[in-house]
Every structure is written in structure tokens, then in C-alpha cells.
């Protein structure tokens, strides 16, 4: 695959591709090669130069994608939510369209948008059709930064959810699982963590959608901040999340559940029907600052979109229309119709 440093300017628009060769016990290498070959063939037919800018490490890939590339028409990422995370942090607020070929272990962001998961050829056709038809939508991202230093320690966008508690522990456990499929990894990790629930301590300062602010101590096994709907390879943790409303959702468990209660909530969450349970708190928020609490256990390392974010304290908010995303024209029309309906309410 030609690397960016090998590219000779041709005057043709460029599609830059990022893959993850080390992912999924080496399966990512085959998926990346397949996707790139298809992109190169279809792109060439439509007048694009397709280049691979994958670095030797994740950090190098992010640097490559963040640098200016002349005549760049789109950035395309191949893989799961971790690659989506890499892509959005490369192009957020840059008006560069992002295309997603979802073939990782989680694929939760793509799932929430109805994209073809695990079907590389279909995903390539979606991207090429979207480029040809200029079919893209502008969506919100979550933004998290370290609260004590203005974002020098932590400063990252997320597409799906910021995991701060048992959800982060589940994500970490699933990432280290030896099971072959993403859904099984998350299910196994979820059952194990739900059977060994820990009460974590947080200091919360939150501004709700209505504009009023509240500050309090919270001991809970679960608090998550959602931009998208899905987590854990198909758990519909935040069923009311809307990627265009300019707010986030705060999801938490109100009291320490028994093991049967925790497993019941997990089962409900797979169907997206848990938010009405008395055990669950669910509020729309504008901004939240999370710090270590005076009571409860020390929260785990924060994660978002399957990737490590850092540690508390952090400030989280919605970043409106930060991402330009390539989608099928039918999805774009549906998105526009939904936005028109909201503006007319």
C-alpha cells in the first residue's frame, strides 16, 4: 500500500485510509488490506487517488491524519469504535468528511447509524456513493478534557460514550478477552462485572438541559456520559441519544444493586428498555465535571469508544456539529427530515 510519503501530487482528489493491522488478534490486517484494495479500485474508477496513511503506532496514525494533506476529499477508517475514535479526533472541526468501514469488535457508533457492519464491500460502496452524491451529515461529538489544567492532560472527542465506572471495567475486560467475537467478549465481561459490583465515589457538578446546575457527592457502580446510543457491541445503553441535539445524556445507577438486580438491568439494557427501571437515573445534560468523591471506591481509568481516556477530574460537554460524516443519501434525507421536524416543534 502506498504511504503518504510516497505520494506524488496528481491533481486528483485524495481519499486517505487508516487501518488497524494489530487489532483483533491480527484479523485487522486482513480486513484493512481488503478494504484498502477495494477503496483503491473503486476510488480509481471514480477519479480519486486512495492512499494508506496508517502509522506504526496509533499515535503515529493520528499524527498522519491530523496533518494537512493537499486535495484531501475524505478520511476513511477501517475497524471498530477505536478506529472511529482515531478518525474523529483527526478531523473534528476541520470540515473533512469521515467515512467508516465498520469491521471491528464493537462497531457501536456505526450500529447506531444503521451502517453495514462486517460487510467491507458494502461499506466501501456506501462511502464511494456518498462522495459521488456529496452525501454527508454534521453531527455532535462529546468532548472531554482534564478539569484542573485546561485540557493539557486529557483532551479528546468521543462519538459514543464516556465510560467512568463499571462500564469502563467491562470495556477493559472485554479488550483483554480471549473469546473470538466482540459480542461474546462484552457479554462475558458484563456478566462478570455485574456479578462483582463495586460502588465508586464521584463528586459531580452538572448543568442539566434546562439550565440549572447541581453539585453533589455520588456513590454508584455506574455513571456514563452518552453522545451515542450503543455500547459493548450492541447494548443500547442510551436509547434516547440524538447526535444533533447539542446535549449529552447522563446515565447512572441510583443505589448499590444486588447481583440479580445488576444482571436484570444488563439484560434490559441489551433491549434499550432499562431507563424506566427505578434503579436507573437518566437525564439530559449540557455539561458535567466529574472528580473523585469523598466516599466509595476509586473509579477506574476512564474509557470512551473502546479507548483509554485518562483519569479524573474531567469536564465533559457536547460539541455541536463537530463531525462531517459520510452516509448513504437515504440516511442524509432522513436526518434532514428529522431536523426539520424538530425545528417545527
UniProtKB/TrEMBL annotation:
Instruction: Check the record and name the InterPro entries matching this protein.
Output: ATP-NAD_kinase_N, Diacylglycerol_kinase_cat_dom, Lipid_Phosphate_FormReg, NAD/diacylglycerol_kinase_sf, YegS/DAGK_C
Q: Which Pfam families match?
A: DAGK_cat, YegS_C
Q: Which cofactor does it need?
A: Mg(2+)
KW Lipid metabolism (keyword) present = yes
The record places domain DAGKc at 10-148
Keyword Magnesium part of the UniProt annotation: no
Which keywords describe this protein according to UniProt?
ATP-binding, Kinase, Lipid biosynthesis, Lipid metabolism, Nucleotide-binding, Phospholipid biosynthesis, Phospholipid metabolism, Transferase
Q: What is this protein called?
A: DAGKc domain-containing protein
By sequence similarity, the record places it as follows:
Belongs to the diacylglycerol/lipid kinase family.
Amino acid at each position: 500500500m502506498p504511504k503518504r510519503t510516497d505520494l506524488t501530487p496528481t491533481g486528483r482528489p485524495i481519499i486517505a485510509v487508516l487501518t488497524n493491522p494489530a487489532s483483533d488478534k491480527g484479523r485487522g490486517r486482513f480486513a484493512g488490506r481488503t478494504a484498502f484494495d477495494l477503496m483503491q479500485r473503486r476510488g480509481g474508477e471514480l477519479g480519486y487517488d486512495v492512499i494508506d496513511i496508517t502509522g506504526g503506532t496509533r499515535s503515529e496514525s493520528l499524527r498522519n491524519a491530523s496533518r494537512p494533506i493537499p486535495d484531501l476529499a475524505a478520511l476513511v477508517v477501517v475497524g471498530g469504535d477505536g478506529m472511529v475514535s482515531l478518525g474523529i479526533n483527526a478531523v473534528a472541526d476541520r470540515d473533512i468528511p469521515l467515512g467508516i468501514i465498520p469491521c471491528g469488535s464493537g462497531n457501536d457508533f456505526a450500529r447506531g447509524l444503521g451502517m453495514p457492519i462486517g460487510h467491507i464491500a458494502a461499506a466501501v460502496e456506501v462511502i464511494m456513493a456518498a462522495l459521488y452524491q456529496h452525501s454527508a451529515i454534521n453531527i455532535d461529538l462529546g468532548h472531554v478534557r482534564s478539569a484542573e489544567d485546561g485540557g493539557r492532560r486529557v483532551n479528546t472527542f468521543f462519538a459514543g460514550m464516556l465510560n467512568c465506572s463499571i462500564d469502563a471495567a467491562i470495556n477493559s475486560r472485554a479488550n483483554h478477552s480471549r473469546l473470538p467475537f466482540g459480542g461474546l467478549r462484552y457479554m462475558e465481561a458484563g456478566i462478570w462485572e455485574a456479578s462483582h459490583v463495586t460502588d465508586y465515589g464521584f463528586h459531580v457538578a452538572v448543568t442539566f438541559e434546562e439550565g440549572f446546575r447541581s453539585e453533589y457527592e455520588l456513590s454508584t457502580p455506574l455513571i456514563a456520559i452518552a453522545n451515542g446510543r450503543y455500547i459493548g457491541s450492541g447494548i443500547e445503553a442510551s436509547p434516547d441519544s440524538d447526535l444533533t441535539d447539542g446535549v449529552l445524556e447522563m446515565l447512572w445507577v441510583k443505589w448499590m444493586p444486588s447481583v440479580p438486580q445488576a444482571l436484570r438491568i444488563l439484560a434490559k439494557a441489551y433491549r434499550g428498555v432499562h431507563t424506566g427501571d427505578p434503579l436507573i437515573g437518566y437525564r439530559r445534560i449540557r455539561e458535567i465535571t466529574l472528580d473523585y468523591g469523598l466516599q466509595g471506591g476509586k473509579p477506574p481509568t476512564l474509557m470512551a469508544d473502546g479507548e483509554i481516556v485518562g483519569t479524573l477530574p474531567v469536564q465533559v460537554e457536547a460539541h455541536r456539529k463537530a463531525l462531517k460524516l459520510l452516509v448513504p443519501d437515504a440516511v442524509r434525507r432522513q436526518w434532514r427530515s428529522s431536523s426539520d421536524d424538530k425545528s417545527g416543534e
